[in-house]
Structure of FI20830p1:
Amino acid sequence: SSGAQLVSEKYKFQKALEILSAATEIYL
């Protein structure tokens, strides 16, 4: 179960990173 949790956290982090990157491109 902890393995699935880790994957979920990693997925959320990567998704947040993509959104942040896209937002940065828009504002810059």
About this structure: DSSP finds one helix and no strands in the chain. The longest helix spans residues 2-27. The chain has a mean pLDDT of 91.
